Amino acid sequence: MGPCCTKRQKHKELMGIIEEDQDPVSQRGNWIQVGKKIYNAMFQMVTGGKAGVCRVEEFPHPPGSRVLSDFAILVRAMIIRQTTKASSMPPNNLVIYKSKGHFEYGFIKGIYNFSDNHQKMLTGIYVQKIHNVYPKLQYPPGHIGYYLQLLGVTIGTIEQDEFQMISPSKIVSLAAYRLFDNEVFRVSNHGVILCPSNRQLSGFF
Q: What's the chain's Rg over C-alpha atoms?
């Protein structure tokens, strides 16, 4: 690493700026300036694609407008649904959540507390999405999807470039999971098998 890179890294450490690929847990408890990717996800969660909130880098801001800050506090874990502890660390780091009327799955990559200029505090959970390889269909007996539905489990692939910031209120359950090797269950790579901790949900997938 050259001297310029070293100086730049030290500057980021002093300013509390987190890189997109850094471990968020190591930065918990301090206000950090998030990167563009995280900020876009935060903004999308808050606005849902609707107008009414201004981005911090877009000037001028109309008088009295709501401006979403690009600073946040990272936390390791939080309580969801009153009794369930979700975390960015295993084993409580895989969640099932509702998005646009459908159940989705994702690994928690970070939990962010952030605010706007009106001091309204918000919490967002940044997840890496999982694609359901065998969604609920009418599979014939003998097909792998048929047995998965009988067992109430889901086979998925971890999407390497699909992330989403979600509200904690969207989470419906944690899930037990196990990663597996390539070509298992006809999944070429990044495979995972999961089962919701809320067994009442197993029939929905």
A: 19
Characterise 145 by phi-psi region: left (phi > 0), alpha (psi -120 to 50), beta (else).
alpha
- Cα 2 to the center of its chain, rounded Å: 34
Q: How far apart are CA 62 and CA 71, in angstroms?
A: 21
Q: What does the alpha-carbon distance between residue 63 and residue 70 come to, in Å, rounded to a whole number?
A: 19
Maximum C-alpha span of the chain = 64
DSSP state of 163: E
pTM of the model: 0.79
Peptide bond into 60 cis (omega under 30): yes
Task: Pick the closest to residue 196 from 103, 109, 128 (CA basis).
Answer: 103
Mean pLDDT, 10 residues at a time, over the chain (205 residues)?
46 37 48 96 90 88 90 94 89 94 94 91 97 80 80 91 96 94 86 83 52
Pairing of strands 84-87, 77-80: antiparallel
Residue carrying the six token digits 């969801």: 80
Of 182, 189, 85, nearest to 131 by C-alpha is 189
